[in-house]
Automatic annotation (TrEMBL):
Its cofactor is Zn(2+). Gene3D superfamilies: Cytidine Deaminase, domain 2, Dihydrofolate Reductase, subunit A. GO terms for molecular function: 5-amino-6-(5-phosphoribosylamino)uracil reductase activity; diaminohydroxyphosphoribosylaminopyrimidine deaminase activity; zinc ion binding. Its EC number is 3.5.4.26, 1.1.1.193. This is Riboflavin biosynthesis protein RibD. NADP(+) binds at residues 148, 190, 194, 277-283. Keywords: Hydrolase, Metal-binding, Multifunctional enzyme, NADP, Oxidoreductase, Riboflavin biosynthesis, Zinc. In the N-terminal section; belongs to the cytidine and deoxycytidylate deaminase family. Pfam families: dCMP_cyt_deam_1, RibD_C.
Length: 346
């Protein structure tokens, strides 16, 4: 199943609104077929793995990171493909939260006499599928807040632009995240201070996430690098944004952040890397819309400067604790990750 999850990871950031899925066909100790879902509209992982296995799939075991689909969508149901290929056993990491599938794919396999095992590496699989699960169950992307700060809790010196708190190793990790998530979001303050391109660099076979820029007052200059035809501009309902629409950008007019996230979900964006400055970060945290946190701690002391969050709590008892926390040394920095929301299951 770990190998199947590695196959599924090849589709991260490319499959929305579908999930990333990997599949292995195994006879004895030999992998005779493997595949992953490359993007929506193309065959699912099981189909690619069965094609590679050919007649060797009969009597074999299929390892699948998500319950095989049982309905006709853009492609035929994978449960039927596994049955037709004559596999003897199917090992599934996680059930599909889509009500059109959930439990029905497993039921169809068992009705055909196939032995089915559930829940193998389920936690790892659901984490990998967090964006898909959020889109299916909540209608909005999974939000990952990323920032880097000094040991005294500063993200930048006051008024500073184009500065970097973290190391080259940390920045390379962020490029990998950009490659794997559907969209990347910043606020107008970050665009004015840094003029970021919001692209992927240094990743073989990488692709750029869709830029999302929050600008409620329409103060961004038209020449900003983040403003291009594929960009989604999120603004207030009354803000004039005709020039952006004329240039091909998608303009979302929303009263609040929940409405904005719902609109991003309707654009089939299942995951959002929040890279904004303190204003945007604080707004998302205050609204309870951050699902996952990834923070780099740099061995630096800045003194006066900008804190990542601008809305202080009154007491330590009001602080929100992260779940499933991991701590990883990365070059001179330390990466701390954790979850504020449970990953939707069913």
């Amino acid at each position: 199943m770990a190998l199947a999850l590695a196959e599924a990871a090849r589709g991260l950031g490319r499959t929305a609104p579908n999930p990333p899925v990997g599949c292995l066909i195994v006879r004895g100790r030999e992998v005779v077929g493997c595949g992953f879902h490359p993007k929506a509209g193309e065959p699912h992982a099981e189909v690619f793995a069965l094609r590679e296995a050919g007649v060797r799939a009969r009597g074999a075991t299929a390892y699948v990171t998500l319950e095989p689909c049982s309905h006709h969508g853009r492609t035929p149901p994978c449960a039927e493909a596994l049955i037709a290929a004559g596999v003897a056993r199917v090992v599934v990491a996680a059930l599909d939260p889509n009500p059109r599938v959930s439990g029905q794919g497993v039921r169809r396999l068992r009705d055909a006499g196939i032995d089915v095992a559930l829940g193998v590496l389920e936690d790892l699989a659901t984490r990998q599928q967090a964006g898909f699960r959020s889109l299916i169950t909540r209608g909005r992307p999974w939000v990952v807040a990323k920032y880097a700060m000094t040991l005294d809790g500063k993200v930048a010196a006051a008024g500073e632009g184009n500065g970097s708190v973290s190391s080259e190793a940390a920045r390379a990790r962020v490029m990998g995240w950009r490659n794997e998530l559907d969209a990347i979001a910043v606020g107008s303050g970050t665009v004015l201070a840094d003029d970021p391109a919001l692209t992927v660099r240094g990743v073989d076979g990488g692709r750029n996430p869709r830029p999302v820029v929050f600008d409620r007052t329409g103060r961004l200059p038209p020449g900003a690098r983040a403003l291009r035809p594929e960009t989604v501009l999120v603004t207030a309902p009354t803000t004039h944004a005709a020039a952006c629409e004329d240039s091909g950008m998608t303009v979302v007019r929303a009263d609040d952040l929940p409405g904005a996230l719902g609109a991003l979900g309707s654009l089939n964006l299942s995951s959002l890397l929040l890279e904004g400055g303190p204003t945007l970060l604080s707004a998302f945290f205050a609204a309870g819309l951050v699902d996952e946190v990834r923070v780099f701690l740099a061995p630096k002391l800045l003194g006066a400067g900008l804190s990542p969050l601008t809305t202080p709590l009154r007491a330590m008892s009001d602080a929100r604790a992260l779940e499933d926390v991991t701590v990883e040394p990365l070059g001179p920095d330390v990466l701390v990750t954790g979850y504020l929301s449970p990953i939707p299951r069913l």
